[in-house]
Amino acid sequence: MLFKSNAFKEWTKRNFSDKIKKQNMAIQQSDKQLNTVPQPPIVVVMGHIDHGKTTLLDTIRKTNVAARESGGITQHIGAYEILVESKNPEYNQRKITFIDTPGHEAFSAIRARGTKVCDIAILVIAADEGVKPQTVEALNLIQQAKIPFIVALNKIDKPEANPDRVKTQLAELGVLVEGWGGNVPVINISAKEGKNIQELEELILLVADMEGITAYKDGPVNGVIVETKFENRRGVEVTAIIKNGVLKIGDPIYTASAIGKVRTIEDCNGKPLKEATFSSPVLITGFKEMPQVGEEFFVGEKTEEEIKKADIKRDIKSNKSDQEKNENTLNLILKADTIGSLEAMKKILSNLALPEGATLKIISEDIGDVFVSDIALAETAPAIILGFRVKIPKDLQIIIQSKNIRIYTFDIIYEMEKFLKQEAENLFKPQEPPIKGRVEILALFSKKRSEQLIGGRVMEGRIVKGAQVKVQRGEEIIGQGKILNLQSSKIDVKEAQEGKECGILIDSSTEIAVGDQLIFQ
Ligand code: GDP
User: Fold this and answer.
1) Number of neighbouring beta carbons within 10 Å of residue 352
2) CA 424/CA 359 separation, integer angstroms
3) By Cβ atoms counted within 10 A, which residue in 35, 179, 209, 366 is the most buried?
4) Cα(193)–Cα(196) distance, rounded to whole angstroms?
5) Measured distance CA(491)–CA(503) in Å, rounded
6) What is the per-residue pLDDT across 55-64, written as a single tens digit (0 to 9) for each?
7) What separation in Å is there between the alpha carbon of 240 and the centre of ligand 1?
8) Cβ count near 50 (within 10 Å)
């Protein structure tokens, strides 16, 4: 009972919209008449890259009856459900739902929306490598989300595996596992060899029982969107996890940004269903527009206010449905703090004087801070993100830089207008990749047709053998070439770092002069 009231407090704290608050209140009021039942836990697997998250999810899935029965031809919908096979009657034939999307990204997106979708996290740490930067990052996310977690020490089959060392590292981070003065459950596994996998499943159920994870079967339906996709034939397809109630075909359904009517429901093995209930990951079609990953969905009709919001989205064509590629079309993703700001942004864009033949296309617009899903869309479209009075979460900035995403944010509408007016031409120019290295030419030694032996100093970054480089004279790019060989102190090397002088054999039809620069991108 204690858990239930806490869960409700947390639930109602979320304040996406009045409608949702009302809905939550309705659930709360009807609490007395409704029965809570134990809910299959929803589990997310997190940890450092290469520590075995995918292997673990695959192993769990493959050893499961449902997957076996479907002949192994299972579709990937971003989440799946298993039936635990255990000799212990307390656990046998109980369900667990696993979120099967790249751990951190989906988790961050869902968390950023303020939705709690996962009940339990598994922190996978390779027992041979131990705690790594993304282990700490995952741990932080789990602790911020305040969800219980299990430490799975993976790759225990490897001779170098050293679980005690990992437990010491965890203790240094303040995580005390069972048997080491704490109560965080820990288990040694081999995802590759299937060792202790059933025990891990039982441990998940034990934690679920201790936490008292429950749901409502009768009453209002809600859940969370964990993956979205556009299928040409079927339209918007979403993977959702139902948190409460029973979802049926024909139900009107909505999120903060999309509305629809449930047309089809499929389970994670592709089996069509007429209805589905809590914790089940399901593939739903029938949304009229693309909801955002991490949004909560509800069954019911939308209020006027929310339909108005949805109307703004409706005229946006899904970029995925549009195969046309036009070099003079610039795709834009708009993010703003309010609907009013969004409208203002669109007005400025519609009045912008563009280069001849050029068009701007808004492929997505949304209220709220920049999300992982925006970055993914910006990368695949490709598109520029324009933000007004929105924040870019710190953890996304690294992704933005590494993926070279063009993103511009403003706090004052006039500044945005000024920037866009000035930059309208430049926006259409493809962005140059970042410079990896720059060499200044200090000496010329010999030249044999296009092959030139020159000497230079790495002024920035590095230069590598085999690299394609541009030749820059003053401000101008005058040619290009390929580095055939590199020498440092007369010894052949694969690369030379910043500050180093090197001999370079370059193949270039441009005659290189002292003072030129070689640009490696
Ligand atoms: P992820 O990046 O965390 O999803 O890691 P993967 O599941 O892709 O695993 C990375 C590598 O570790 C792969 O080559 C796996 O075969 C290997 N691996 C995963 N689990 C185990 C394990 O239990 N034992 C051993 N020896 N290798 C494993």
Assistant:
1) 15
2) 10
3) 366
4) 9
5) 9
6) 999 899 887 7
7) 27
8) 13
